[in-house]
Amino acid sequence: SSFSSSFSLDSSSSQLPRIEVNSESDINKHFQKCKNDLKKEIDWEKRSIALTTISSIAKGIENSSTELKQFFINLLKLSKRDLLDNVLDLRSSIVKDSCICVIRISKSTGILFESIFVELLEGLLKQIVVSIAVIKDSAHECILSCLESTPSPRILTILIDSVSSKSALQRTRTSEYFLVILESWPLSILEKNINKISDILKKKLLVDADSQVRQNARQCISEMMKKFPNLTQSLIESLDLSTQKFFNSPDSQCRSPKSPAVSPLTPRSSLTQINQPQIQQI
């Protein structure tokens, strides 16, 4: 993805301690110690430690078997409401810790995280339009990263609804999510869903009232042309003449599948560097 080099999760997550886990009983022991501290009525500092502990378990299983990862996900499913409550919290430090936790889980477990991420996504989308910068930037970066790590077609239904938001910022962010999907998802998944994406570009994003949304949509078309040239050409030919003229101009990136990559969108804003976190003592 064109975003990867500017994304600061690696520097943030490198500060996370790794909890070494070699069995289901190891995972269960660490998880049971912190799961009750995730609840929204618990003091925020304890919740922060619990989130960091879960992040550290996730970091500890990144090279483990699929069976161990699935066991961890099954435990998390029991606490997904608590995870969502923390994502939706009003305290920016808790939202940031929650987003780092969600990103870490997604990176370690990939598509196994799908069912939980689908439920968290609607909460994250609510947070990308709040006025507090740390909250909206953390939520935005969380979505961007999870889209790459957990490529789930189920996400598309939620994003298609988000395209119709009254908020120009939400529509702009959502158009960026479609670009990340087109850049990073496996071709086998894209092939089954490209008609849906093409349809939303044509009917919504390319004709949006906001110029940034339209610009991002044109970048999506450029990315589509690299992978689906025939479909993309048909899409362009179905657009109004002025839009067709843009895509067929000598400077357009959509004139052939060999066109160079478009300039990336504005880089992701960096998640604030977290202090060396604590983990619960077992």
3D architecture notes:
The structure is a single chain. With 282 residues, this protein is mainly alpha-helical. Helices cover 63% and strands 0% of the residues. Helix 2 runs antiparallel to helix 3, helix 7 (114-127) packs antiparallel against helix 8 (133-149) and helix 8 packs parallel to helix 10. The two termini are 39 Å apart.
Most strands sheet: none
Order of helices and strands: HHHHHHHHHHHHHH
**Number of β-strand runs:** 0
- By DSSP (H or I, 4+ residues per run), the number of helices equals 14
The average pLDDT score comes to 87
Q: Low-confidence runs (pLDDT<50, min 5 residues)? A: 1-7, 256-282
Shape estimate: elongated
Note the beta-strand portion: under 5%
Q: Helicity range of the residues?
A: 55-70%
Distance between the termini: 39 Å
**Based on helices, strands and strand pairing, what is the structural class?**
mainly alpha
Helix-strand blueprint:
Elements: H1 9-13, H2 24-34, H3 44-60, H4 66-77, H5 80-87, H6 92-109, H7 114-127, H8 133-149, H9 154-162, H10 168-184, H11 187-203, H12 211-227, H13 229-237, H14 241-248
